């Protein structure tokens, strides 16, 4: 089911494969989710709702009632965060992770490349309850090989070194800025453990905690999302009883403006340069 965004999200490719598998619900997102819930009733179909992530905020009631009714639908929200740049704040999803995390039993995926996104679609289609995949607009390089194993609730340790000084938790578009920052820091003799949480709910607390303790208890989270209800808050909450772990968070802390993505990354702390500076500050 599409919310009249097929040209932007490329869901039109599904329509080319099979018109029987494509339902245009137009710019009526509440109807979009309602149709999906109806189509998925009694497991008659595996229903995917596709639109911009920001537009799912209009459908909270339908999604909430779907969860309470133990329905199985799969939501895919694109154009997340300030990474959409010139499109402006009205279309920048910056509260979507928080919204979907509040849904009982919801599984929240946040892939960062084509391979992890394809696996997320497979996992989502086979996971009970409400599911959400947060996707990005910019073209991103592939960092995982096709044989990489992904699981719900299992993080990926993208980079680690015996001399790591800090754990860097990044997802989606910020993963690529995080890897640039890790390269810059490594040239100056500072190694960081880079973790991709993959699913924000459930979060792999065991992997994050183990590596945090290994590096001395310092964690930096970076996200293209408001601070409230995002990755940083999730990590801080789940590790709140660990007295020896410190969580520093970088997030979009105000309503952004329309601007090129790289300018917005720098302004709101998502750029590799901002990450490098935050690591130095945390290590002081």
TrEMBL record:
CDD domains: TPP_PYR_DXS_TK_like. SUPFAM superfamilies: Thiamin diphosphate-binding fold (THDP-binding), TK C-terminal domain-like. GO terms for molecular function: metal ion binding; thiamine pyrophosphate binding; transketolase activity. It comes from the Eukaryota. Its cofactor is Ca(2+); thiamine diphosphate. Gene3D superfamilies: 3.40.50.920, 3.40.50.970. It is an enzyme of class 2 (transferase). Keywords: Calcium, Magnesium, Metal-binding, Thiamine pyrophosphate, Transferase. Its EC number is 2.2.1.1. Residues 1-142 form the Transketolase-like pyrimidine-binding domain. InterPro entries: THDP-binding, Transketo_C/PFOR_II, Transketolase-like, Transketolase-like_Pyr-bd, Transketolase_BS, Transketolase_C. PROSITE patterns: TRANSKETOLASE_2. Belongs to the transketolase family. Homodimer. This is transketolase. The lineage of its organism: Eukaryota, Metazoa, Ecdysozoa, Arthropoda, Crustacea.
